[in-house]
Description:
Mean pLDDT: 88
Radius of gyration: 18 Å
Order of helices and strands: EEEHEEHEHHHHEHEHEEHHH
Number of strands: 10
Amino acid sequence: xxxxxxxxxxENVVAGYRDFMILNKLSFQVRTGSITLLIGPNxxxxxxxxxxxxxxxxxxxxxxxxHGQDISGASQKDxxxxxxxxxxxxxxxxxxxxxxxxxxxxxITLGMKTTHERIPEVLELFxxxxxxxxxxxxxxxxxxxxxxxxxxxxxxxxxxxLIDEPSIGLSPIVVKDVFKLLRGLAxxxxxxxxxxxxxxxxLAYSDDAIALESGRLVxxxxxxxxxxxxxxxxxxxxGAHTSGAATSPA
Length: 250
């Protein structure tokens, strides 16, 4: 029986900024319809993986594949067309525009008719954002803004969702709701690759975890095994690996 082609594959990828390479011949695979959590200390390369996959950084060496197809160096427009959406760390909204207008811009590649058809279904996932539909994005709380960013990405009905630190600025209740939403998307077939500072909470909703150190793979295990193994907890979930993750520039 032929093994399934992985959804995402990094093969000996070297990537970074000008003369400073962060990923050092990194290789891993991500299964279709799974939530895979990237963990590791500051500067390990977690966010760099997402940026490289979304075309914000070009691999200097190696290959990035999506369902077996080489997408190394592809444009963000092409990657969006292939079903990859990215929710970066921080706030990335048009603050002076309304919630509705931000959603419209999120669906610009779809055409206005399709975008307007999909906006109501996205808003059903985020009742508080729906209540603020005509408010300026800048007037929303940090948690509401993050929900709007995620909703904007979901307009594209992505096959692959890349999400960097979704819990920043969210209350514990909203964080749980976001993780449940991601779990539901994965269960319906969306592949989620996530960087998250609340490692323990994220592992509880994830299928697999990939640990990076200095841009190299040091561990790739089922998330449940890492949660259940005290040795793994000390090694990868200890203070240094979780307390500073929210400000990691990698």
